[in-house]
Amino acid sequence: MKDLYSVDWTFKEARTEPLHSIHPYPAKFIPQIPEKLLELFSPKKNLCILDPFCGSGVTVCVAQKMGYNAIGVDLNPIATLITRVKTTPVADDFLNICDSIVEECKKHEQPVEKKNFPNIDHWFSVDIQYALAILKEQIDVFRDYQNYDALNFCFSSIIVKVSNQDSDTRYAFRDKGKTKTDVLKFFLQSARKLKKNSIKDGTTATILNMNSLHLDDQIPNNIGAVITSPPYPCAYEYWLYHKFRMYWLNYDPIQVRGEEIGARYSYFKKSKYEGYDFAVQMTKLLSYLYDKCVPGAPLCFVIGRSKIHGQIYNNDEIIADIGKSIGYKYIATLTRDMVNSRKSFNLSHARIKVEYIVVLQK
């Protein structure tokens, strides 16, 4: 498709939409990529758009906005929480509920149960531990509330901000001097931003918290396009980025780390993965998707290259070669510059400056 090459895929002037800026997420997908791909390929509206590594849900949100039923899958429970919230309307009484939670929190000096996980006293002052634990207890009073996920989304969005972690992308200790008052203030700020920018209505979005290599029958046979960015080897530590959030929301980050494709941990532990593991994983996924996509469906992978034990792995070529071997038509490999502000973790190791959009078609 000649039109693919006429687009400046870097989108240097792109600005993050407010809905996508409320909750931090590493290497966030910019909406312009899925928007342009769906515009160029124009799948029929009765087909589903799939992102098997949905992350913060940008592809799913774009597809929903454009009138498609969308499916997002991710192993990381924080990712699927974010995506569920961004694709679900917020009720009229949401801010009233949040205000009532904050007022109730003010009545308590200590939580019913103190939170405990590795190094919690290093990364969270006692006052902040108590404030977060109390806030989570009050949120959990509303487990049956239609926007319970949204309450946890707002809670999750502030955790690093009130911690002793320097920033969302830098694991260095820094006492920020935050207090219980800040915890409650930031929670309400997040809630107000979500309410203001949430979708009002939309087509169906199905979000699955699971390993994309084990989907089996969860995906229908009417996928009209796949647009995704796989977590390729040694690029970003998604589990690490959300480790504290997972602990506070009662998920297990170590279990997520063990299954996460591309986590740097997997390549440097004693029984380390070898470079071909990513190819094996992508072969399994692309073979599965071949049976789920309709004829003519594009499969678009935004991906960078990896450096593992001094060797460069061209993940774009790996994806293209696998696709051709399975029976997909190879359409194009497009190049886009990486924006420095969108990077996080392992930068000196990964040195990611360029990424590619590999386009296949069934």
UniProtKB/TrEMBL annotation:
Listed GO biological process terms: methylation
The segment(s) forming the DNA methylase N-4/N-6 domain are 9-77
Recorded hits in Pfam families, A to Z, give: N6_N4_Mtase
Q: Which InterPro entries match?
A: DNA_methylase_N4/N6 (IPR002941), SAM-dependent_MTases_sf (IPR029063)
In alphabetical order, the GO MF annotations are: methyltransferase activity
* Entry keywords, A to Z: Methyltransferase, Transferase
Q: Does the keyword Chaperone apply?
A: no
| Name of the protein | RNA methyltransferase
Q: Which source organism?
A: Xylanibacter muris
